[in-house]
Amino acid sequence: MRLVKIGLASVNTTVGAFGRNVDRALDVARRMAAEDVTVGVFQEQLIGGYPPEDLVQWQGFVENQWPQLERFARETGALSTVFLVGVAVNHQGLRYNCAALVAGGKILGLVPKEKLPTYNIFYEGRTFSRGYPGMREELRGVPFGDFLFRFDFGLLAPEVCEDIWSPEAPLRRRTYSGAELVVNVSASPFRVGHGDTRRELLATRASDHQCTIAYSNALGSNDGIIFDGGGFINQNGKPVLEEPRFQEGFAAAVVDLDRTLRLRAENTTWRSDREAWLREGGKLVPTIDCTAAFTSRREMLRYPVPAHRSFFLPAPDTRRSPREALCEDILDALALGIGDYFEKTRAFKVIGIALSGGRDSLLTLLIAYRYAKRVRPENPGSLLRAFYMPSRYSSDATREAAETIARELGVSFQVVPIEEAFERELNIARTMLAGAEVTPITEQNIQARLRAQRMWNWSNSSGGLFLQTGNMSERAVGYTTTGGDLMGALAVIANVPKTVVMYLLDYLLEQTGYEGIRKVLAKPAGPELAHNQVGEEELMPFPILDACFYLFAGEKLVPSEMQAALEAMFPEVEGARLRTYVEKFIRLFLQSIYKWVQAPLSLHIGNLDLDRERALQLPVVTSSDWTKG
């Protein structure tokens, strides 16, 4: 047996907070060593925080990470653990995103990332340079490039995040060169359902390449990108450990690396593939011997046996239902997004919401309350402020619903009518129009803008974080007011479709039984900016609206293809009506890009987000002529 205990760390980092990031990592590192961890795995860009974006172009941002890496090495020098740490380095004028190997008080090696993503939210190719096969260089006296590292417990191959996502991954040549333990330091953003994707990918890679993989993911939210933490250990395709997500700390498990070598020897296909690779000119990756620099202590480790004491029977099933997993993941991710924005900016003292009595602001309040419960468990409501600002169109039912949920949560609730200001602004608008009548849309927008203005005034004087409460579906088609309900400091559910908003509220009602949720759901969804307003009557049924958005913006279908898909999805709706909905969606969507590019910073939870800088990069000035083919 060759037992190794692998620890996976989750550290909530802040971009640019080098010293604080390392302090948090050192705390986890010491706890790992105290529990006999042999190899401790941290995340990508641990020291600098992720994503640094164009800060990497500042030489000082990169150069100042090195002293902190040295400090980490120095302060862990007495620990009997090898650590993998994510860091940015400057080499010959180029910036590299690296995994640093640290043990025995020394930096033993740097392995740069090879695959630099430039899709979706990522822009790494803009700022970083790539490592490459056969790279053999030295940085500050440290081996820098494509290397393996030999310790007394086995042969280790570091790599960084995206390197494992490519089928032409570096781990192919590294395992063919003898690497037994592949360690991936990662910063993979949260995406709905993405945990299953990671799990399956790592199982596939570990099985295909006959190795043990340790994968540790970043934790925390920076600029709306949410990292859920967690990690996996998989040995030759067999799951060993799954680290909990959305929480700081670490998890660890023992593996027998002799088992990895035995399975590799038994797998005739893997051996044949390796032989073919060598015949075709494959180059073995060189190994750096670290046995003189570090000696592990593994005498306390015990063979990994199943907790339920059977190698043949399945372990108890602790998996959540798909409904619970979906809802809890989204709620946890968005609560983390609010909390990290609130704490890391260090600009706010309290969180405020314009609570309308409708679904969107209710869900936003409940998510903020979820965060508040974590940091102020004794009195979460003390961190939140809710403001109800009625006009002549506001109903008693929405006021009662808003007041009820605020009371149930223990949140301060103020009624601040806007009727007098609404009438005054109407008269001013008529004057500016030289007597012409104000349009109905303008009447609605005046109310929304008055509410936003008051929230900003409150925010400026109280140090309050003003949360924007609009959802993705209505934002996509411009069913929102520029300077009004589109405004706020942080858009919490701006990338949550309306059907998902309602699904989450149904779930939360089941879980909590809050009467305030029940009262909100009892009334049709509508903004109450005019008499008897119902959102689905003014737009289209929300399931069809969300389907249109997905098919057009996600699947990139043209109108005729969208209609064919909708007819299959909604056979009960006549084709002519579906055609009308498609045409209406396309027109509203393309006309509304100018609106949603002005929205505040949004939290990202899916691959299909309304964010011109990170997801859907569409021109503001555009025509729909091309859709008519």
UniProtKB/TrEMBL annotation:
<dbReference type="GO" id="GO:0003952">
    <property type="term" value="F:NAD+ synthase (glutamine-hydrolyzing) activity"/>
</dbReference>
<feature type="binding site">
    <location>
        <position position="188"/>
    </location>
    <ligand>
        <name>L-glutamine</name>
    </ligand>
</feature>
<feature type="domain" description="CN hydrolase">
    <location>
        <begin position="4"/>
        <end position="259"/>
    </location>
</feature>
<dbReference type="GO" id="GO:0004359">
    <property type="term" value="F:glutaminase activity"/>
</dbReference>
<comment type="similarity">
    <text>In the C-terminal section; belongs to the NAD synthetase family.</text>
</comment>
<keyword id="KW-0067">ATP-binding</keyword>
<dbReference type="InterPro" id="IPR014729">
    <property type="entry name" value="Rossmann-like_a/b/a_fold"/>
</dbReference>
<dbReference type="Pfam" id="PF00795">
    <property type="entry name" value="CN_hydrolase"/>
</dbReference>
<dbReference type="InterPro" id="IPR022310">
    <property type="entry name" value="NAD/GMP_synthase"/>
</dbReference>
<keyword id="KW-0436">Ligase</keyword>
<dbReference type="InterPro" id="IPR014445">
    <property type="entry name" value="Gln-dep_NAD_synthase"/>
</dbReference>
<dbReference type="GO" id="GO:0005737">
    <property type="term" value="C:cytoplasm"/>
</dbReference>
<feature type="binding site">
    <location>
        <position position="469"/>
    </location>
    <ligand>
        <name>ATP</name>
    </ligand>
</feature>
<comment type="pathway">
    <text>Cofactor biosynthesis; NAD(+) biosynthesis; NAD(+) from deamido-NAD(+) (L-Gln route): step 1/1.</text>
</comment>
<dbReference type="GO" id="GO:0009435">
    <property type="term" value="P:NAD+ biosynthetic process"/>
</dbReference>
<feature type="binding site">
    <location>
        <position position="119"/>
    </location>
    <ligand>
        <name>L-glutamine</name>
    </ligand>
</feature>
<comment type="function">
    <text>Catalyzes the ATP-dependent amidation of deamido-NAD to form NAD. Uses L-glutamine as a nitrogen source.</text>
</comment>
<feature type="binding site">
    <location>
        <position position="474"/>
    </location>
    <ligand>
        <name>deamido-NAD(+)</name>
    </ligand>
</feature>
<keyword id="KW-0520">NAD</keyword>
<feature type="active site" description="Nucleophile; for glutaminase activity">
    <location>
        <position position="161"/>
    </location>
</feature>
<dbReference type="InterPro" id="IPR003694">
    <property type="entry name" value="NAD_synthase"/>
</dbReference>
<dbReference type="InterPro" id="IPR036526">
    <property type="entry name" value="C-N_Hydrolase_sf"/>
</dbReference>
<feature type="binding site">
    <location>
        <position position="445"/>
    </location>
    <ligand>
        <name>deamido-NAD(+)</name>
    </ligand>
</feature>
<feature type="active site" description="Proton acceptor; for glutaminase activity">
    <location>
        <position position="44"/>
    </location>
</feature>
<dbReference type="GO" id="GO:0005524">
    <property type="term" value="F:ATP binding"/>
</dbReference>
<feature type="binding site">
    <location>
        <position position="595"/>
    </location>
    <ligand>
        <name>deamido-NAD(+)</name>
    </ligand>
</feature>
<dbReference type="Pfam" id="PF02540">
    <property type="entry name" value="NAD_synthase"/>
</dbReference>
<protein>
    <recommendedName>
        <fullName>Glutamine-dependent NAD(+) synthetase</fullName>
        <ecNumber>6.3.5.1</ecNumber>
    </recommendedName>
</protein>
<keyword id="KW-0547">Nucleotide-binding</keyword>
<comment type="similarity">
    <text>Belongs to the NAD synthetase family.</text>
</comment>
<feature type="active site" description="For glutaminase activity">
    <location>
        <position position="113"/>
    </location>
</feature>
<feature type="binding site">
    <location>
        <begin position="354"/>
        <end position="361"/>
    </location>
    <ligand>
        <name>ATP</name>
    </ligand>
</feature>
<dbReference type="InterPro" id="IPR003010">
    <property type="entry name" value="C-N_Hydrolase"/>
</dbReference>
<dbReference type="GO" id="GO:0008795">
    <property type="term" value="F:NAD+ synthase activity"/>
</dbReference>
